[in-house]
Specification:
This protein has 254 residues and is mostly helical. The chain has two domains: 16-154; 157-253, Helix Hairpins (Orthogonal Bundle). Helices cover 69% and strands 2% of the residues. The protein has nine helices and two strands; from the N terminus they run ααββααααααα. β1 (85-87) and β2 (90-92) form a beta hairpin. It is globular and about 65 Å long. One of its GO terms (cellular component) is plasma membrane. It comes from Takifugu flavidus (sansaifugu).
């Protein structure tokens, strides 16, 4: 009886270690999926706002787009249909059941996964090359949240990831504001007033610097002169107050 008890304990330990190892392998894969998602939400927006498309650069953009799409396609076709799940206290390993479970999941029923990989990029063959045809990749946000939740569950000090994630949210909000500021400057005319981007230096870096000073309400910004500029700047101040109050609340929770 003692021997059988020891054997049972060993088998339990082995099963637990295998499940943890498998979970860590899946988290490692999800990190690639999350990286592909972040590539899409960061670079699709910056390419849409800034003039970063040129015949020399487009081939590199296409290569990066293909790699990120390949990661998402492998995740949807290979990993997700084989993901084990728990039913009635038992872990289901059967590939047919795991595939059926994935097809019944909200991600598949709502078609977010399918819609996110539709190749609207092919429209570039008949129209101008633009990242607007890749905006459907943004709807696959659940892949990032799944990675975030699983990573937080296996980390001994999960607060480190929470702080890093909150910082990432802040940087992305500043990124969106930098893109909006450049579009607003182009709408008004580059270097036409003291408020808009003057056309000197690196466009993205200068606009990001403006976004940091504007949303954080540091001050010392050039005064807006037109109605459009005043409206844009007032919206910046209101959004900055709302965003930073929300982020401070999240930091307090962590």
């Amino acid at each position: 009886e003692r021997r059988s008890g020891k054997v049972g304990e060993c088998q339990t330990t082995v099963n637990i270690s295998r499940s943890v190892a498998a979970d860590r392998r899946y988290i490692a894969w999800l990190s690639l999926v999350a990286l592909a998602y972040n590539y899409n939400i960061w670079f699709c927006t910056v390419r849409l706002a800034f003039p970063y498309h040129s015949p020399a650069a487009n081939m590199y953009w296409v290569a990066c787009d293909v790699i990120s799409d390949a990661v998402n396609l492998i995740d949807i076709c290979v990993w997700q249909p084989r993901l084990q799940f728990v039913r009635g206290g038992d872990i289901i390993h059967d590939p047919a059941l795991t595939k059926a479970h994935y097809r019944k999941s909200p991600r598949f029923k709502v078609r977010t996964d399918i819609f996110s990989i539709l190749p609207f990029d092919l429209l570039c063959l008949n129209f101008e090359f633009s990242s607007i045809y890749r905006l459907n990749r943004i709807v696959r946000v659940e892949s990032f949240f799944e990675f975030s939740d699983r990573l937080e569950n296996v980390m001994a000090k999960a607060y480190i990831w929470r702080v890093a994630r909150t910082t990432g949210y802040l940087l992305f909000m500043l990124h969106l504001n930098a893109c909006a500021y450049f579009v607003a400057s182009e709408h008004q005319g580059i270097a036409t007033t003291t408020w808009v981007y003057d056309g000197n230096g690196t466009a993205y870096l200068r606009c990001y610097y403006f976004a940091v000073r504007s949303l954080i309400n540091i001050g010392g910004l050039p005064e807006p002169t037109t109605t459009f500029e005043i409206t844009f700047q007032m919206s910046n101040f209101f959004i900055g107050v709302f965003v930073f109050s929300s982020l401070i609340g999240q930091v307090g929770v962590t």
